[in-house]
From TrEMBL:
Coarse class of the protein's main subcellular location: membrane
Keyword terms of this UniProt record: Cell wall biogenesis/degradation, Coiled coil, Glycosyltransferase, Membrane, Transferase, Transmembrane, Transmembrane helix
Protein name in the entry: Cellulose synthase-like protein G2
Coiled-coil intervals: 190-217
Pfam families registered for this protein in UniProt: Cellulose_synt
Organism: Penstemon davidsonii
Chain ranges passing through the membrane: 21-38, 54-73, 519-538, 558-575, 650-674, 681-699, 711-735
Protein localization: Endomembrane system
Taxonomic lineage: Eukaryota, Viridiplantae, Streptophyta, Embryophyta, Tracheophyta
InterPro entries, per database record: Cellulose_synth (IPR005150), Nucleotide-diphossugar_trans (IPR029044)
Length: 736
């Protein structure tokens, strides 16, 4: 059959999920209305009779209102979940494929070990794509000679690795993953293959040793005060053997200029520098963004993405094709929910609207979208172009020039071009231009990905999510409680910054994009507001249980059913979603725990910091996620044992809330039995019990474990003290 008549991609609505979702929205929605009716009438009675104190009742009611608000927003994700399939075998021949630039960011070789970063670089170079249409750029925010030297070594090794991969059609093109075993590397048992494999393996070991020797001074090699360095790797660096330069993709090291006191804008700044520098070198119309720990597993990702970009029906509207982040180091327990499955499940819902947000990395994007269609109009004045894109003439020339610049004539970078590149990578280039404001990645928040996608969706672009069975990109997820909480706090803080800015999606979105998509963005940026109902419901019902103040309907009251239904159906809905995504009940338990940990810690700090930031009393900071993981930590993680060695500020809130609920449940149940108040107080005892059972691990951590990963005695004592004070003096809350 003629290939051109067959579709390159297909989008399937997840019908069963859709029906369950909408039914759930209806039933739960009606129940919530009933709940509000109950609360409102009860509140009126309390105001009139003043039989019970007002404050606790108000706290619980407000918690429920906020919870409902967030619930409503989140339903937009459930409206129309879809899944996509691609058919790369139907793509036209190589000569018709567009060029792709790959951008990889790294920042510090002491936290992001060179071997891992270079494996990402090499796996990207080995993508199954015509080499003359592929260019790989590494941005080194550490300006480290260790990283530069490692790039030179990578170039040499890649010259052996890439021909080997092509010759045997290797499926896993990350050398470390290939040589450390797995089914993928058993390509054949013929002697030629084995000989070649041994030869390449020997070179990989040499490469490995060279990097190791080189990395001894990784920490001191990082500099925050240096000029820009851009080096196009080539045979001129004097190495022999392996592939010829023609058979290799372009490999470029970029370290932008950094100066103390200049704003560098973290990863967003790094990516914008790469956009500019690559524009005057290879200038591909599409680019792929990777984090330094995200190697390419399946080498066909670029071809799969082209199934959208070469589909004339939707291509002109698509700004990015997003792959989910998958992780190579998750344990079967996944106690920190590091696989981020809740995010990818919601991604299916976004994909059915106008598309997923950018998830930081693993996406193919068009230059046109990130530059701005209106900014690159052919008839735009030079002065206007300079206002948008800065002063570089070479860069402005590149906008309408689809041809690559240096690569065509043998990779030579002329002195003139080198000067221009220095300008484009300088720390002041963005000043006075629209970079970071309207052009490129937007700067004002640490989640450059979310704000940039919000703005692009608002400009009318769409995006697609593609989640093939064989993961295309594999990274390292966080494997300790501390890392997870720090990372989540950064994300929530960044998102909250968006919520408090003029881009607040509930105001900025609806006139510019679909209402459902706006609701999703609003849910995303205000996720941290869960902190309000979480604290409200973790603090108020327990203390009222102690003082015998009822906040919920009696078990014999018909409204009891309403509360019970809402609680149970929400929990069951979560379990159903976990199952439908192919995970087990264990996943749903761990996800619930992580949600509770995030609500009590990350969301709290995120909201406080975002408010402080709004009033200018704090400075944004990007604490890198550690990728150099200790053995003991990995062991705990693999065995599903929580590691509570974390800064006390992160653990004390968890333990305190736990102890308050534990104590209140024990004393409360005793009181219920003594006073025969079961009918009245049962719900209030069940809530703390639920928290106590679900987070049993915390009890273990505080009182039963003796290992190094337990909750420290100091944290336990401090938490006991705070919870005792709260339970003892909490009755002041009842004065009103
Ligand atoms: O000043 C910086 C800070 C970070 N990075 C790079 O950005 C990437 C992500 O940083 P990481 O420490 O791994 O943070 P994560 O929380 O794991 O990153 C997630 O969250 C980020 C937004 O906060 C997204 O950009 C990422 O793609 C996403 O994986 C890494 O390659 C870093 O080297 C820089 O290049 N410059
Ligand atoms: Mn990361």
């Amino acid at each position: 059959m003629d290939n051109t008549s067959l579709p390159l991609n297909q989008c399937r609505i997840l019908k069963t999920d859709l029906i369950i979702n909408r039914l759930y929205i209806l039933l739960n929605g009606v129940s919530i209305l009933a709940l509000f009716y109950y609360r409102a009438t009860n509140l009126l009675t309390i105001l009139l009779t003043r039989e019970t104190p007002l404050i606790p009742y108000l706290v619980v009611f407000v918690s429920e209102i906020v919870l409902t608000g967030l619930w409503v927003l989140h339903q937009a994700y459930r409206w129309r979940p879809v899944k996509r399939t691609v058919y790369p075998e139907r793509l036209p021949g190589d000569e018709k494929l567009p060029a792709v630039d790959v951008f990889i960011c790294t920042a510090d070789p002491s936290k992001e070990p060179s071997l891992g970063v270079m494996n990402t670089v090499i796996s990207a170079m080995a993508l199954e794509y015509p080499p003359d249409k592929l260019s790989v750029y590494l941005s080194d925010d550490g300006g480290s000679w260790v990283t530069l030297e490692a790039m030179r070594e990578s170039w040499k090794f890649a010259k052996w690795w890439i021909p080997f991969c092509r010759k045997y059609n290797v499926k896993n093109r990350c050398p470390e993953a290939f040589f450390s075993g797995g089914a993928d590397n058993l390509i054949s048992s013929n002697s030629e293959f084995l000989n070649d494999k041994n030869e390449v393996e020997k070179r990989y070991q040499e490469f490995n040793q060279n990097l190791e020797k080189n990395s001894v001074n990784a920490k001191s090699s990082v500099s925050r005060n240096h000029s820009a360095t851009v080096e196009v790797m080539s045979d001129a660096t004097g190495n022999v053997g392996g592939a010829t330069q023609k058979e290799m993709p372009l490999l470029v090291y970029v370290s932008r200029e950094k100066r103390p006191g200049h704003a560098h804008h973290f990863k967003g700044g790094a990516l914008n520098t790469l956009l500019r520098v690559s524009a005057v070198i290879s200038n591909a119309p599409y680019f792929l963004v990777l984090d330094c720990d995200m190697y390419c597993g399946d080498p066909t990702s670029a071809r799969q993405a082209m199934c959208f970009y070469l589909d004339p029906k939707i291509a002109p509207k698509i700004a990015w094709v997003q792959y989910p982040q998958k992780f190579r180091n998750t344990s079967p327990y996944d106690i920190y929910s590091g696989r981020l499955h809740p995010i990818w499940r919601e991604g299916q819902g976004l994909d059915g609207l106008t598309g997923p947000t950018i998830y930081g990395c693993n996406f193919f994007m068009t230059r046109e979208a990130i530059y701005g269609t209106d900014k690159i109009q052919k008839d735009r004045d030079l002065s206007l172009l300079k206002k948008s894109f800065g002063v570089s003439n070479e860069f402005i020339k590149s906008i309408h020039n689809n041809k690559p610049n240096v690569w065509s004539d043998g990779g030579k970078v002329s002195d003139e071009l080198q000067k221009e590149i220095q300008l484009l990578a300088s720390s002041t280039y963005c000043n006075g231009s629209e970079w970071g404001l309207e052009v490129g990645y937007i700067y004002f928040t640490v989640v450059e990905d979310s704000i940039t996608s919000l703005i692009l969706h608002c400009k009318g672009w769409i995006s697609v999510l593609i989640d093939p069975v064989k993961p295309c990109f594999l990274g390292a997820c966080t494997t300790s409680l501390n890392d997870m909480l720090v990372q989540q706090t950064r994300w929530s803080f960044g998102l909250m910054q968006i919520g408090l800015s003029r881009f607040c999606p509930i105001l900025y979105g609806p006139v510019r994009m679909s209402i459902l998509q706006s609701l999703c963005y609003t849910a995303l940026v205000f996720d941290a507001l869960y902190v309000i109902p979480f604290y409200g419901l973790a603090l108020m019902p327990p203390i009222c249980l102690l003082y015998n103040i009822p906040l919920y309907p009696k078990v014999s009251d018909p409204y009891f059913v309403v509360f019970a239904f809402i609680f149970l159906s929400s929990q069951l809905k979560h379990v159903q979603e976990v199952f439908s995504y192919g995970d087990s009940w264990r996943t749903s338990l761990y996800e619930l725990r992580v949600w509770m940990m995030k609500s009590s810690v990350c969301y709290l700090y995120a909201v406080i910091n975002a408010i402080a930031d709004k009033f200018g009393t704090t400075e944004a900071n990007f604490s890198l996620t550690n990728k150099d993981i200790e053995e003991e930590q990995t062991r705990w993680y693999q065995q599903g044992i929580y590691n509570y060695q974390a800064s006390p500020g992160l653990i004390v809130p968890l333990c305190t809330l736990y102890l308050i609920n534990l104590a209140s449940f024990i004393i409360g149940i005793a009181k219920i039995v003594l006073n025969q108040t079961g009918d009245q107080m049962l719900v209030q005892a069940i809530l703390p019990l639920f928290g106590v059972i679900m987070n049993y691990n915390l009890l273990e951590g505080m009182f039963l474990r003796m290992d190094k990963g337990r909750v420290s005695i100091f944290v336990t004592l401090l938490s006991i003290a705070i919870s005792a004070i709260y339970l003892y003096f909490g009755s002041v809350l009842f004065i009103y």
